[in-house]
Amino acid sequence: MLTLRQLSYFDALAKEQHFGRAAERVAVSQPALSVQIRELETHLGLQLVERFSGGARLTEAGKDVLEKSRQILLAVQELETFGQTRQGPLNGPFRLGVIPSIGPYLLPDMLPRLRTHYPHLELILRESRTTNLISELSQGHLDAAILALPLEEDNLKTQALFEDPFYLATPKQPDAPAAISATAIPMDDLLLLEEGHCLRDQALQACSIATNPLMKSFGASSLTTLIQLITNGYASTLLPQMCIEKEAGLDHISLIPFLDPAPSRTIGLAWRKSAPTEQDFTALANIIKNR
Amino acid sequence: MLTLRQLSYFDALAKEQHFGRAAERVAVSQPALSVQIRELETHLGLQLVERFSGGARLTEAGKDVLEKSRQILLAVQELETFGQTRQGPLNGPFRLGVIPSIGPYLLPDMLPRLRTHYPHLELILRESRTTNLISELSQGHLDAAILALPLEEDNLKTQALFEDPFYLATPKQPDAPAAISATAIPMDDLLLLEEGHCLRDQALQACSIATNPLMKSFGASSLTTLIQLITNGYASTLLPQMCIEKEAGLDHISLIPFLDPAPSRTIGLAWRKSAPTEQDFTALANIIKNR
DNA sequence: TTGTTTTGATAAATTTTCCTTATTGCGAGA
DNA sequence: TCTCGCAATAAGGAAAATTTATCAAAACAA
After folding, report:
1. Taking CB atoms and an 8 Å limit, are B68 and A82 in contact across chains?
2. In the CATH hierarchy, which fold is given to the domain comprising A4-85?
3. Nearest 10 degrees: CA dihedral of A110, A115, A120, A121?
4. Shortest distance, CA A133 to any CA of chain B (angstroms)
């Protein structure tokens, strides 16, 4: 079999034109080098060097082989360098999924800090619903995802990042109370995102509301639409603080915080248990937590 | 030290996504492969594969390393081939691809002459469509291919072999003209091979016919079927001379040559630019040309 | 849950490869 | 002819790779 060792010995021989010195150059005894060169010659079926008293010189075939050998050795060296530059957390491509009800509010803060701390990170973002993110994670199409906990997938690991408290959003009322209790949510008047959006389930769960057939069945398909509806006085809804901080057009809405124990959703990071190392994930989690 | 053995085991692992099967592929026990992979990983200082129950999957770093590895292995393979070709042309194994619309007509003449001139040649033939041949050439699975020019791959080199003029094949007509002009092709009546066959594109291009929605849309999937249809009087088609010389069942068909400038396709030989030497290809080309 | 199967990792023994030292053979120049 | 320098060869030992056997963890089926 052809080996890299043979090629590098041959390279040394070409440089020195002398078996003894070539052997010295690669820190090996002269017979060892001789044997490897002969091995290379028989393997290729070609005479590569012409031995003459005083030293050795390459044949025409040898020169061609040398050129190709050096290309190979160079490529190998490149591969080895590649390894070194790729070390350390969050280096190179990293595929991160985010649920839509977090993405637009969290990312603007997060991305610049990531770029500062990990300049060699090539972040590939994907925004999708929780169920999609989970399956893409499991299949190895994503490296990690930011979503609301808890998850039940037992091939995934999660870490909590922060709590995101809910607010009650109602049409503007001058006499809005400073804070209300979670038990005082106006059920008949409540409007949520359509079925399938995780924000809907989170809101229901956080506030301990059972799904109610009497509840207004118009499911808004996006948060912006939903806020539009509230603004126009149609209903109330539950908004996570995360959205409030960034969403525009909240002027005509009253945002009422809850009394303790305030309902909230837990935002966390998820990744495969079988993922190579955890350093990427802890590094990412730290960046997000220290905002 | 990094070795070629490690790279080829890693290549196998990438192909199989499974340690056991990868080991089988390289004819070695599973632990042997596992050890070499781990060695490669520690040497590069990178985790290359993610082990999970069910198999193994490349990490992002692993994918990059794989690409570089394959380049190296390909270069090594070329170097090995170089040895053989340097000892005289067409010596030892030679993998030749041929497109189906040439193979059955060209090979019966060519093979005996090749055997006479180059008795040590071990020809390995592969018949496939142009796109397949090109990709197999590029990946180093073929040494050369006979197909219709021109090609656009800039990592391949080509040489024209001969011109193969087209004939118009119509159902038998006693008063068939001795020759017709290319501009007089009966478009409405024209039947060609289905989309994807290069012969179809060549015919259209050679005769400067734009794809026409009115054209009969029944695409025949093989040349034999096509000729069958013509025989039964359904339509006309364009046949290259190459096929006419050998195809059976042409008795009930009128074959009308074209007036100058007669449309034709160019048959040529293609190989990798990076191929060790050109002598194989010129030798092969000469054999084909001097038929 | 509890066996059962499958997967990759690990261990120990063995084979293969490679290396070192010692020696030989060959050719050029004194 | 003698001798010096060079590469090839031989023999024994060290290192690397492989094999078989076994293990632990995870997935799967009962």
Report:
1. yes
2. Arc Repressor Mutant, subunit A (1.10.10)
3. 20
4. 18
